[in-house]
Amino acid sequence: METKWLEDFVSLAETRSFSRSAQLRHVTQPAFSRRIQSLEAWAGTDLVDRSSYPTRLSPAGLTLYGQALEVLQAIQTTRAMLRGHVSAAQDVIEFAVPHTLAFTFFPAWVTSLRSQFGPIKSRLIALNVHDAVMRLVEGNCDLLIAYHHASQPYQLDANRYEMVSLGEETIAPYCKPDEHGNPLFELPGKAGRPLPFLAYAQGAYLGQMVDLILKHSSAPIHFDRVYETDMAEGLKAMALEGHGVAFLPLSAVRKELRAHQLVSAAPVDLKDLTITMEVRAYRERAHNGLASTARAGKAMPDPAHTSAQALWQFLQEHRNAV
User: Which of 11, 146, 242, 311 is a good FRET partner for 176, with 20 to 30 A between their CA atoms?
Assistant: First the structure.
């Protein structure tokens, strides 16, 4: 039996919806249903009355719900106390950050933060977007920093998580210049001569943003997908070598643009080949049940949490200023 099955079950008991709980737990609905079935197999009985709508727990499910809350709270309390042994000496704030932001936005942001907020001890955990969000959901970081766009919102429960805006990021197409400073590959390309496209791997968050750009372009874009990777830094390296066009965050290419190592691949008459996203920080609300129970079970305040709380208050008071 896995603790995440209990967390899934508690979510289902509270939302009374398989689809809603699947969203909140950041898994597909079939995968979520399989995990509930696995818990039922472990329990040896049905926990959910599937004949009713909204979803209702069986008598055995009601019993397990109360026990699951106690078990999860006990685990959270123990884990918080164990982490206190480390954080008490280090006073470190843990950030979960998708790879692209970890390489581009985060270093400059911390520099600005230290000049305005003061010294900060941080631990950066660089992950793909899904795993970074799950790091927050499972309580394994203090703050999540991630992109946000209205077309691809994260399904984070506003009652459990709070958010503050840190600024904006723009994605646009870039490529290597020729000896005259002109782009080697200028959009939109031609049907018979498509441009080499350095693309994000399927499922990557920035790839979904690029798909949105291409979908709403005022002119057909002719691309030949010659390379793909999850990471913007990987695409930038290929673009610098002249392998094609890559859609990259501005923060990732500022130095290269100033040095004329990269140039815009979009002509002036194609102004819609960009998209602006918000950069947001998320954290679990302090009043959340499991979190507050875990903290209440500690013998002394967690210095890392104290630092994270002070930082969060600063970010709320200085939105978009850092």
Answer: 146
